[in-house]
């Protein structure tokens, strides 16, 4: 039997703010040491707040997840400082709204690079460390309901395609690493309140109303609505659950 302790060290990409930071808090609340990776320079401050609030070890590293070597180096540093990561949450992600006929090669590549390449590079470093140490682990990729439905009214084909790929990457790695006791799942949130969505809804409250009109539970998700699912996936409570994408969207995709 393989065992994954929820108190194993965790890495959270995109952990400086938004859903990543909130989910790092949830893991820390269960006793995990956490390492936050982000391009934002205040990622170290975010880590310090987690230590102050939950009393666990937390480090924040400025790392661009699109840089494979930088991600690998960060995992080596994290293993030395807080132990080999046994939990991975990939929340680093970007979205760009644009008509597809106007999308440049650079814009397309940036979205794919952060959302898909970045997820892969983090997972690769995570798997490499666990396989070398002979340890089990659990990875949770933050995909999106946009990987299985097409949002309206905004156009975001690059984001939608990248998130579909993230979910299938999770299934692929789950099969590849299952025998080693490494589980890989993805979560697909619907519309959640975060820094990412605030930039749109604050400028355009009518847009938020339009989104909410399509959500059966009648509100956007709060970051805390993801805590139970992610701590479940990170823990032994989900020991036989791997290779799945779990949609958490207030019922959006049910209608
Ligand atoms: N908010 C939503 O409604 C929603 C819904 C579904 C999925 N998601 C996904 O959840 C994840 C978190 O989104 P959020 O809403 O909290 O957004 P956010 O913009 O608040 O947070 C994303 C974080 O990723 C970091 N980041 C961006 N590019 C990076 C890079 N190259 N390297 C390292 N870090 C990088 C940002 O600095 C930021 O801290 C994203 O993957 C997003 O696609 C969000």
From TrEMBL:
Keyword annotations of the record: Oxidoreductase
InterPro entries, per the entry: NAD(P)-bd_dom_sf (IPR036291), Sc_DH/Rdtase_CS (IPR020904), SDR_fam (IPR002347)
One GO process term, biological-process aspect: carbohydrate metabolic process
GO molecular function terms noted in the UniProt entry: oxidoreductase activity, acting on NAD(P)H, oxygen as acceptor; oxidoreductase activity, acting on the CH-OH group of donors, NAD or NADP as acceptor
Residue ranges crossing the lipid bilayer per the database entry: none
Coiled-coil residue spans: none
Keyword Nucleotidyltransferase in record: no
Tagged with keyword Oxidoreductase: yes
Similarity-based family: Belongs to the short-chain dehydrogenases/reductases (SDR) family.
PANTHER family: BENZIL REDUCTASE, DEHYDROGENASE ARBD, PUTATIVE-RELATED
Official protein name in the record: Sorbose reductase
Organism field: Leucobacter luti
């Amino acid at each position: 039997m393989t065992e994954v302790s929820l108190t194993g060290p965790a890495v959270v990409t995109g952990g400086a703010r938004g859903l990543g930071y909130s989910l790092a808090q949830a893991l820390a609340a269960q006793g995990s040491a956490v390492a936050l990776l982000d391009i934002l320079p205040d990622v170290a401050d975010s880590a310090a707040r987690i230590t102050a609030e939950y009393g666990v070890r937390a480090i924040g590293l400025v790392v661009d997840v699109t840089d494979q070597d930088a991600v690998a180096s960060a995992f080596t540093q994290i293993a030395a400082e807080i132990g080999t990561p046994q939990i991975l949450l990939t929340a680093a992600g970007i979205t760009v709204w644009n008509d597809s006929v106007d999308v440049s090669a650079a814009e397309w590549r940036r979205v794919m690079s952060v959302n898909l390449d970045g997820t892969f590079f983090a997972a690769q470093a995570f798997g490499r460390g666990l396989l070398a140490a002979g340890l089990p682990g659990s990875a949770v990729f933050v995909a999106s309901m946009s990987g299985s439905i097409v949002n309206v009214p905004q156009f975001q084909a690059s984001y939608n395609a990248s998130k579909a790929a993230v979910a299938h990457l999770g299934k692929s790695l789950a099969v590849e690493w299952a025998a080693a006791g490494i589980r890989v799942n993805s979560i697909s949130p619907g519309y959640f309140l975060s820094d990412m969505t605030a930039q749109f809804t604050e400028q355009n409250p009518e847009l938020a109303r339009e989104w909410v009109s399509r959500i059966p539970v009648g509100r956007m998700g709060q970051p805390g609505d993801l805590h139970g699912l992610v701590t479940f996936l990170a823990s032994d409570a989900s020991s036989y659950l791997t290779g799945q994408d779990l949609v958490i969207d207030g019922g959006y995709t049910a209608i």
